[in-house]
Design brief:
Strand order of the largest sheet of chain A: 6-7-8-3-9-10
CATH topology of the largest domain in chain A: Rossmann fold
Shape of chain D: globular
Shape of chain A: globular
CATH architecture of the largest domain in chain A: 3-Layer(aba) Sandwich
Structural class of chain A: alpha/beta
Helix content of chain A: 25-40%
Number of helices of chain A: 17
Oligomer: heterotetramer
Number of domains of chain A: 2
Number of helices of chain D: 15
Bound molecules: adenosine-5'-triphosphate, magnesium ion
Strand content of chain A: 15-25%
Distance between the termini of chain A: 54 Å
CATH class of the largest domain in chain A: Alpha Beta
Order of helices and strands of chain D: HHHHHHHEHEEHHHHEHHH
Helix content of chain D: over 70%
Number of strands of chain A: 22
Radius of gyration of chain D: 21 Å
Distance between the termini of chain D: 15 Å
Structural class of chain D: mainly alpha
CATH topology of chain D: ABC transporter involved in vitamin B12 uptake, BtuC
Chains: A alpha/beta (499), B mainly alpha (321), C alpha/beta (322), D mainly alpha (329)
Largest sheet of chain D: 2 strands, antiparallel
CATH class of chain D: Mainly Alpha
Strand order of the largest sheet of chain D: 1-4
Number of domains of chain D: 1
Largest interface: B-D, 43 and 40 residues
Strand content of chain D: under 5%
Largest sheet of chain A: 6 strands, mixed
């Protein structure tokens, strides 16, 4: 292929894309240079993923042109994009659940032997070598579905790097990674840069942008707002570009101190797999944060205390009432609910409307003698859509059509609508833009202020430090330290997590 | 020993362990209960009888794994016998007859695959439609009678009725060979893995650059061709194209395939599991017949054992988690 | 010299749960028991592949004689060849097969034919000599097609102007017969005779007539088979159900065992051993059957007194010619 | 917006087509109208009162069970034992009425039996966690065998109660009783699916069982309810069919499950769960039954009763996917 060495690695010009009822992109430009990291940011629903999917051949653009290495490119299918050396890490994790890690890595091209059989040995060895090179510690023989979501995300990243690429696109690659893995990822990205590869980096975490990006393009409402070197931005100017206003406090705190009544008490909790003798109490008005490294057992703890996963021993009490029998129905009835970390498989009903997704847990409250009073349901749902600024063309739209961040808001509203004593949130801001984040933080703050107890599992250290009253650190299924926020430092938390 | 550990993992990961136990239990029980059951003659008989469902089952399992459904095999069994017998009667050539049967089977596979994979019509609907259309077509073409084999070729007779070295029926040999070939393809050729990927997560497969419709299409064609092989064997065993052949065959095959642990939602299953499912049902039918049990009891017992076997399998799988 | 008695007879039946075959098996087992023969039954349940499997299993169990009711007559040709190779004598029941030694069967055409004659007479006496027929048939089997042909031919001997208004496929099932008859009666309700190739078909037709709200005053229903209690019940209670072409399944089973015995002893047997049938009009059934609660028993003397024809007027082979 | 001016609704046919495109059951409605129109033109008997009643009565039998099946499929399960259960239920109903001499007792027996079959299916699926497809194939076998253990031959009507005959063949005013029963079942299930907690939970269950469980839904009990409801509806149909045939027929109901499922999926209900509508099912039943009837009315070879529905099911589903895609783009 003839390509002009002076032309940019990729030039997307005047890209437009419509979905029914939504203009996802209108006249957007994006120009990439080899060896540079180009950040793409914007609110939830701004059109970032849509732009990337056009680049990946998943969606077809309605208008505009794409040139790769100066040559006009036709991207009709993902295969076209792969052939042109475009590798994408998609926002929604995309592994074959039944395949091993190694096989997922080499999905695009299985190594084969002379007679065309898959060379399983080579496959495993190559995967191992790749992980060693990247510094990821993952068993290549493990099945993808058995891995926690953070590991899946790393596998996903490794997959994009397994073959040669000229352009690597990462759509929110760090949304469920812990700081350690983020650091690892950045090392990898720097290596890509040094190889002259152009990188597109999408994230809602602004500090990451400042750390890794060279150039930033901001989208808002599907329109191109600005493209500047990252050095020309401050945090505030970036946010200003993104949401068209300023955010005063990312971690607002309006609530008073926690009260004395214990809403959640967990005593000596152990499960078959991971958890060992976990005990803690959360009071009304308190935000109780959990920190831990990948696989520390936070997700498992969250699932156990709401009654979803079975427990082997221990006592869980909500508002003084024991969670017995140990199931979610009792849990919800006593007033505990979980916002899961895996939105797609454990939260969303993709084909169903925004309204039905949001009202699921609260539906009983809108029913009289078993009949759902839809007018009441609708107005309640509309209330939350307005309050949380959920970007949706309508309440009857299938939730599949919403951007990831907006889906998350709907799922959080599922519990807010229900009204709980204790709300457990596992990675609540995964994939959520700064504006929405501050709204969600304000909400969590208000929930606590209203006397609820909030249990928060998050890998975002700033969130943890900004929002929690107390922080527990988990390692290997045990709580290794509990401390009030005032005593917590990043170093302290990390050292307890490694213990 | 990494090698033996891998083997162990393969054995425990797949769901074949409990199924194998079930099969052994069935065989053990009938060996004790009936003195005619455990003879070479009877066991090879059953293998021959199971071979039809086994051949068709391979194809159905592949389609299931690719995330689609194929229930058209029952009518196909009857339909392919018509070109086979008609051409053979006209030309006195077995090869031409088989070619004609495979041609019809291929066309049906192509139609199923085109409608389901490319036009993206729900495959249950497509193949249910094919099931009806083919059966009706057979009745219309034959005027609801069987077409006898007038050529009387010895090779045609031997195909379904003869035995390799006088022991193993040829249909069983064919089924076994096909099983091994396709188990190899599904486990060790890129195509097989593409099928698993397309069923396991079609979006991912597409993003990985696979032509998912083509993979699914291929599955339907393979399935129809394998059902055609079963149909040819059956035609030889019946010495004619029988219009009522294979009524309800699709139920048997689907039951065996699902019993064998092949998931209806795609991406999961093994051909050996499917084969075990077929064998369990075949030995059960044979053994219950040996016990001289009335049909009604046979149905009741088979139904109960299917439930028991699947819940045992489920239970084992859960324990492992 | 007394006959040698086979120890084991294997019977592969096409559809064991059907009432007709229940009574065939009953006739077989009753007769065999007196002779000290063990009869084992395997059911093909209308599946040709299962039929072959059943016969195969019997051969590996080394039965002395094999009896087969073919699901389809063409489908057992290879089976006969294999049995011959293994030296197992085979008696066929129901349908003739190329290369067979002997078969026990009723004459389906004749059965329909004589019922047709009775129907014609009835129509002359009670329906003003008009015969407009709805045939609830089953094209799937040559035997049932023959019955329908026989019936129309029989009725034509009495009423030459008889017409076949509807020729339906009721699947031999009561519910399907009911459904197709309902549609047919809606299309054209101007009939006065319903003929069913078995009792389920005739009763399905009659129920459709009743469901359409029609009176039975000028209607004649003719059933075939006499396989269970249903026809007796209908003849007792339904004013229009006047004629039944009885086929005596018990007798058929009985005769099959006799044929098996003869084959086993290498005695000469006719290629087609005809089992008797006769039309029953009105209360005639009481001559042949006795009902006790929910079981019926056959009156052997009366049935054995019937003389079957030596040869059928028409067979499946004649169907193919036309 | 250049594109919107291109799809300006044209007057007349274009506008109707555009309106239809937004209607989920558009294809089936058009198909049904076309079928009825074409058959009526060719054979006027089609729209005779007698025939309409015959069609409605046959549709009623299928629709009642299909209503239950729709609920089950939406919840992500399936029941293949309905045909076998139908036959058995008829025998039980007739037997119970014979013994008690009371129609209510017979009806109760039918409902109790079929409901128990549903309960059994439900327990096997929810407690033993057997895939419902295979569990109900097994139940189908057990029932097919069981009915012959229960009765060797058709259970005859020995009670001669007029009320019993009325269930299948009777009228209330101008309407056949089975049709009224079907209408009542349809209305009840329609409301249940659209407007009650049960319905909304069933959709949720089929769409995402984990989310349903996390939201505190009684997942097992919901599934169980789906099976029991389907069972009870089979009971109603069994009773009607038994009355229509005036006997409990162990051979009845062969292939009934396929007809029911074909109608439900023709109506657009997804096999994957979480999606479907009862209106679609109603249309699906009518289309299939009109075809069945039309072939006899037109005096076509009855073998077409297999071919035509096969083609129609595929074609209708294809047209519907095309319609949905066109709207989405
Ligand atoms: N398949 C689709 N059908 C209809 N609308 C869609 C579809 N995909 C995206 N949209 C809409 O297009 C807009 C842009 O969505 P996109 O996913 O590109 O946002 P995003 O910038 O990636 O947001 P996030 O940060 O939440 O991931 C949103 O309003 C979304 O609702
Ligand atoms: N679905 C699953 N099946 C099997 N094992 C699992 C599953 N999910 C998690 N695990 C295992 O349980 C352990 C705890 O994982 P968990 O997800 O609870 O950790 P975590 O602290 O929440 O980590 P993360 O940051 O990844 O969310 C991990 O070692 C993981 O391998
Ligand atoms: Mg996005
Ligand atoms: Mg986690």
């Amino acid at each position: 292929m003839l390509s002009d060495p002076h032309s940019p690695a990729l030039a997307m010009q005047g890209i437009g894309k419509q979905f029914p009822g939504v203009v996802a992109l209108a006249d957007v430009d994006l120009t990439l240079t080899g060896g540079q990291v180009h950040a793409l940011i914007g609110e939830n629903g701004a059109g970032k993923s849509t732009l990337i999917k056009i680049l990946a051949g998943v969606y077809q653009k309605d208008s505009g042109s794409i040139r790769i290495g100066g040559v006009e490119a036709e991207l009709r299918t993902p295969r076209d994009a792969l052939r042109l050396g475009i590798k994408v890490v998609f926002q929604e994790i995309a592994l074959i659940p039944e395949f091993t890690v190694a096989e997922n890595i080499f999905l695009e091209r299985h190594p084969v032997n002379r007679i065309g059989s898959i060379a399983w040995g080579k496959l495993r060895a190559d995967a191992k070598a790749l992980f060693d090179r990247l510094g990821f510690a993952v068993d290549p023989g493990a099945r993808a579905r058995d891995l926690p979501i953070s590991t899946q995300q790393m596998v996903e990243i490794a997959r994009a790097l397994a073959h040669e690429a000229r352009i690597v696109v990462m759509d929110e690659p760090t949304s469920s990674l812990t700081p350690k893995e983020v650091a690892l990822l950045f090392t990898v990205i720097r290596r890509l840069k040094s190889l002259g590869i152009a990188v597109v980096y999408v994230s809602h975490k602004l500090d990451e942008i400042f750390e890794i990006a060279d150039t930033v393009t901001v989208l808002r409402d599907g329109r191109h707002i600005s493209t500047k070197p990252v050095a020309a931005h401050t945090q505030d100017s970036l946010i200003q570009d993104m949401i068209g206003r300023r955010i005063e406090f990312l971690f607002p705190r309006a609530r008073g101190p926690a009260r004395s009544d214990v809403l959640l008490s967990v005593r000596g909790l152990s499960t078959k797999d991971k958890l060992r003798d976990v005990s803690f109490e959360v009071r009304a008005g308190e935000v109780f944060g959990f920190f831990g490294l990948l696989g520390a057992g936070r997700t498992e703890l969250a699932k156990a205390i709401v009654g979803f996963d079975p427990i082997r021993s221990g006592e869980i009490a909500i508002g003084g009432q024991p969670l017995r029998p140990h199931d979610t129905r009792t849990g919800v009835a006593l007033g505990i609910g979980l916002l899961t970390e895996d939105r797609k498989t454990e939260g969303l009903m993709l084909e169903q409307s925004v309204q039905h997704n949001m009202s699921l847990a609260a539906l009983g409250g809108f029913a009289v003698a078993g009949f759902v009073q839809e007018a009441r349901e609708r107005s309640a749902v509309q209330g939350f859509v307005d309050r949380l600024r959920v970007r949706t063309p309508g309440l009857d739209r299938p939730i599949r059509d919403l951007s990831g961040g907006n889906q998350q808001k709907v799922l959080l509203s599922r519990w807010l609508l229900r009204g709980l004593k204790v709300i457990v949130v596992d990675e609540p801001t995964r994939g959520i833009d700064v504006g929405a984040k501050s709204e969600i933080f304000a909400l969590i703050d208000r929930l606590a202020g209203e006397g609820h107890a909030v249990v928060m599992m998050t890998s975002e250290m700033p969130e943890l430090l900004g929002l929690s009253d107390r922080i527990a650190v988990m390692a290997n299924g045990r709580i290794t330290a509990t401390m009030p926020r005032a005593d917590a430092t990043q170093e302290g938390l990390l050292s307890a997590a490694i213990a | 020993m990494p090698q033996s550990r891998n083997l162990l993992r393969v054995l425990t990961r797949r769901s074949e362990g409990p199924l194998l136990l079930c099969l052994l239990a069935v065989i053990g029980f009938f060996a004790l209960a009936s003195d005619t059951f455990l003879s070479v003659r009877n066991i090879t008989n059953v293998l021959g009888q199971a071979s039809l469902a086994m051949m068709a089952g391979i194809g159905v399992a592949i389609v299931f794994i690719s995330g689609e459904v194929d229930v058209s095999c029952g009518s196909l069994l009857a339909a392919v016998a018509i070109p086979l017998i008609v051409v053979m009667n006209a030309t006195n050539s077995l090869a031409l007859g088989i070619a004609a049967a495979l041609a019809l089977g291929g066309v049906v596979g192509v139609v199923n695959g085109f409608l389901a994979a490319y036009l993206r019509i729900n495959s249950l609907i497509v193949t249910l439609g094919t099931l009806f259309v083919l059966r009706g077509g057979v009745y219309l073409y034959t005027g609801q009678t069987a077409i006898p084999d007038d050529a009387g070729l010895e090779s045609f007779f031997q195909l379904g009725n003869g035995r390799l070295a006088g022991v193993l029926p040829y249909p069983a040999v064919a089924a076994l060979v096909l099983l091994l070939v396709f188990a190899y393809v599904m486990g060790h050729r890129p195509f097989g893995r593409h099928v698993f990927a397309a069923g396991g997560n079609p979006d991912v497969a597409r993003l990985a650059g696979y032509d998912v419709p083509r993979i699914k299409f291929a599955g339907f064609v393979v399935s129809a061709l394998l059902a055609t092989c079963a149909g040819i064997m059956l035609a030889s065993r019946l010495g004619s194209a029988v219009h009522v052949a294979g009524l309800g065959f699709e139920f048997q095959v689907v039951a065996a395939v699902v019993l064998g642990g092949v998931s209806l939602s795609g991406g999961v299953g093994s051909l050996f599991g499917m084969a075990l499912g077929v064998l369990i049902l075949s030995f059960l039918a044979n053994g219950l017949g040996m016990l001289d049990l009335a049909t009604e009891w046979q149905l009741v017992v088979t139904g109960a054992i299917i439930i028991a076997a699947v819940s045992f399998d489920e239970f084992k799988r859960r324990q492992k988690l | 010299r007394a006959d040698e008695v086979p120890k084991h007879i294997g019977y592969v039946v096409n559809y064991a749960t059907h009432e007709w075959y229940q009574n065939v098996i009953k006739g077989m087992k009753d007769h065999a028991k007196l002779l000290g023969i063990d009869v084992a039954v395997k059911d093909a349940n209308l599946d040709v592949a299962k039929e072959v499997a059943g016969a195969e299993d019997f051969m590996s169990q080394k039965v002395d004689v094999l009896i087969i009711t073919p699901v389809n007559e063409e489908g057992v040709v290879p089976l006969l060849r294999r049995a011959k190779a293994e030296g197992v004598p085979v008696v066929l029941e129901g349908n003739p097969v190329k290369g067979m030694t002997t078969m026990v069967a009723i004459c389906d055409y004749d059965t329909g034919y004589f019922a047709g004659i009775e129907a014609g007479k009835y129509a002359q006496a009670h329906l003003g000599g008009v015969a407009k027929v709805m045939n609830v048939g089953l094209p799937l089997l040559s035997a049932t097609v023959l019955r329908s042909y026989g019936f129309m031919d029989g009725i034509h001997t009495i009423i030459p102007g008889a017409t076949l208004v509807h020729d339906l496929d009721g699947g031999g099932n009561p519910d399907r017969s009911l459904e197709v008859s309902s549609a047919a009666l809606a299309q054209n309700g101007d009939i006065d005779i319903i003929y069913g190739i078995n009792d389920s078909s005739s009763l399905g037709g009659l129920q459709a007539w009743k469901a359409a709200g029609k009176s039975q005053d000028n209607l004649l229903v003719v059933g075939t088979g006499g396989e269970g209690l249903a026809f007796i019940n209908a003849m007792e209670k339904e004013p229009s159900y006047r004629i039944e072409a009885a086929m005596f399944p018990e007798k058929e089973g009985y005769t099959t065992i006799d044929a098996a015995l003869a084959l086993y002893n290498h005695k000469p047997v006719a290629e087609h051993i005809v089992s008797p049938t006769t039309p029953l009009v009105g209360d005639d059934w009481k001559k042949y059957y006795e009902v006790n609660g929910t079981t019926r028993s056959i009156k052997w003397d009366a049935v054995n007194a019937l003389t079957p024809p030596a040869k059928c007027m028409k067979t499946a082979a004649d169907l193919k010619k036309s | 917006m250049a594109s919107s001016s291109q799809i300006q609704p044209q007057p007349g046919a274009g506008r109707i087509a555009a309106a239809m495109a937004g209607q989920p059951q558009a294809v089936l409605i058009v198909l049904l109208l076309l079928l009825c129109g074409a058959i009526s033109l060719a054979a006027a008997q089609f729209y005779s009162l007698a025939n309409i009643i015959a069609i409605l009565r046959q549709s009623a039998l299928v629709l009642i069970v299909a209503a239950g099946m729709t609920t089950l499929l939406i919840g992500g399960e399936v029941d293949l034992s309905v045909g076998a259960s139908l036959a058995f239920t008829g025998c039980v109903a007739m037997d119970a009425t014979n013994r008690s001499g009371s129609v209510p007792v017979g009806a109760l027996a039918a409902l109790a039996f079929a409901g128990a079959v549903g309960l059994f299916n439900g327990l096997v699926v929810t407690r033993l966690r057997v895939n419902s497809l295979i569990a109900t194939i097994a139940t189908m076998m057990i029932l097919q065998g069981g009915v012959y253990l229960y009765t060797r031959e058709a259970v005859q009507n020995q009670h001669h109660l007029a009320a019993f005959t009325g269930i299948g063949a009777g009228y209330l005013g101008a309407f056949p009783i089975p049709v009224l029963l079907a209408a009542a079942v349809f209305a009840a299930v329609y409301i249940a699916l659209r407007h009650t907690l049960f319905g909304r939970y069933t959709y949720a269950l089929g769409a995402n069982p984990i989310a349903a469980r996390l939201s505190g839904l009684r997942v097992r009990r919901l599934k169980l309810a789906g099976f029991v409801i389907t069972g009870l509806l089979v009971g109603v149909t069994g009773l009607i069919l038994c009355s229509l045939m005036n006997a409990g027929q162990p051979t009845a109901g062969r292939g009934f499950e396929l007809t029911v499922i074909a109608a439900v999926i023709l109506g657009g209900t997804s096999l994957a769960g979480g999606r479907g509508s009862l209106i679609g099912t109603l249309l699906g039943v009518l289309v299939l039954k009109v075809i069945d009837n039309g072939i006899i009315i037109l005096r076509w070879n009855q073998d077409f009763q297999m071919v035509v529905p096969g083609v129609v099911i595929v074609a209708a589903t294809w047209l519907d996917t095309v319609r949905v895609r066109r709207r989405a783009v």
